[in-house]
Specification:
It is a single chain. The protein is mostly helical. It folds into 2 domains: 75 residues, no CATH class; 244 residues, Hypothetical protein af1432, CATH 1.10.3210.10. The protein contains 17 helices and 4 strands. A two-stranded antiparallel sheet has the order 1-4. Strands 2-3 form a two-stranded antiparallel ribbon. Helix 3 crosses helix 4.
């Protein structure tokens, strides 16, 4: 029964199409909505805990004793597992017996699957209202988890992956949280929560923009196409109208393309009329977008992305750029020598 290696995609694709789950993510007595299998040395999958039966402490300890690191769940129970993860995320994140790296992976998988569901379901729908409460709960747990030493640094490495809109939303949320936390007492936990939720939904309006427009380089869009693209902040606010979003969250959605020199959209606001938390979000979402691959260009390296942002510091504000650089240096995404020598410039 021993299987301590990380499962490969080939493992998952065999048999009944199972997906691997770190055994540390399964809290005793909380499972029951999905069956749990173990993979035998000969490659066969053996039912270990049936649906409707809890995984007891004794049975989980038996897996540990046999060196089992991963168990497997059938693909057709993936939704049930995601609900389990959303409901038990805080218990996993606060369990210090689980190594920090594994807790961060659990946070990433839970957060990403939740935000993905919103984007794939094309907000808003009445049945998704309850999922908004999951998002709020997830953000609260994220803020708390990031007080754990090194948690945010490991999270930044994970959220840099992927190219879908929901990947960008989670990445932007993490960066925005960290930049706003650098303001200290000026930003309390309530504002952090509102802005992080706004960061998650900042691009939700793109769900109503044709794919043919989203897949093109913005500079190649003709007038009508550009107008449609620029409508996504307004569309986002409209899509979220039935959700209990705070004013600050709506500001993040509506104003995230406003620029300090007044050249942004949709309102052409100048610096003094743009809330400071929106400015923080704006820099973070631009950086995350540049360092994430799209359909029309590869990902840009962090240092190069910051150079580009710094070249347009009159759009974003020097203070926000400096704070983002500090976050990336502390997270070891950038080296101190590089940022001091290469991005200092106008910032």
């Amino acid at each position: 029964m021993k299987d301590t290696r990380t499962p490969t995609s080939q493992d998952v694709d065999r048999g009944e199409f199972y997906f691997p789950v770190d055994i540390m993510f399964l809290k005793p007595w909380t499972v029951g909505q999905f069956p749990v299998y173990v993979k035998q040395e000969e490659g066969k999958y053996l039912l270990y805990t049936a649906k409707g039966h809890d995984l007891s402490i004794e049975r989980r300890e038996r897996l540990f004793e046999n060196g089992v690191r991963f168990v497997f769940i059938p693909q057709n129970f993936k939704k049930e597992y995601e609900y389990y993860l959303w409901n038990n995320l805080n218990a996993i994140l606060t369990d210090e017996s689980i190594p920090l790296k594994q807790r961060t992976v659990a946070w990433y998988k839970g957060s990403l699957s939740l935000v993905r569901e919103f984007f794939e379901e094309k907000l808003p729908r009445p049945l998704l209202f309850s999922k908004f409460n999951y998002v709020k709960k997830m953000v609260q747990e994220t803020i708390s988890f990031f007080t754990t030493k090194d948690a945010s640094r490991q999270a930044l490495r994970l959220v840099s992956r992927g190219f879908q809109a929901y990947n960008h939303s989670v990445g932007t949320m993490v960066l925005t949280l960290l930049v706003l936390q650098s303001y200290g007492d000026k930003v309390d936990e309530d504002l952090l929560l509102k802005c992080a939720i706004g960061a998650i939904f900042h691009d939700v309006g793109k769900c109503r923009v044709p794919e043919a427009i989203l897949e093109r380089k913005p500079e190649t869009l003709v007038d009508d196409q550009w107008d449609i693209y620029k409508s996504h902040p307004n569309l986002g606010v409209g899509l979220c109208i039935n959700l209990p979003l705070a004013t600050e969250s709506l500001h993040c959605i509506l104003f995230h393309h406003e620029l300090d020199d007044g050249s942004g959209y949709p309102a052409g606001l100048e610096a003094e009329f743009i809330p400071f938390y929106v400015k923080a979000l704006r820099v973070c979402e631009v950086y995350d977008g540049l360092t994430r691959a799209t359909g029309y260009r590869p990902a840009i390296k962090p240092y190069v992305a910051l150079q580009r942002i710094n070249n347009y510091h009159h759009h974003y504000g020097k203070d926000c750029i400096k704070r983002l650089i500090m976050i990336l240096v502390e997270a070891q995404v950038l080296g101190k020598d590089i940022t001091q020598n290469k991005t200092k410039g106008n910032a």
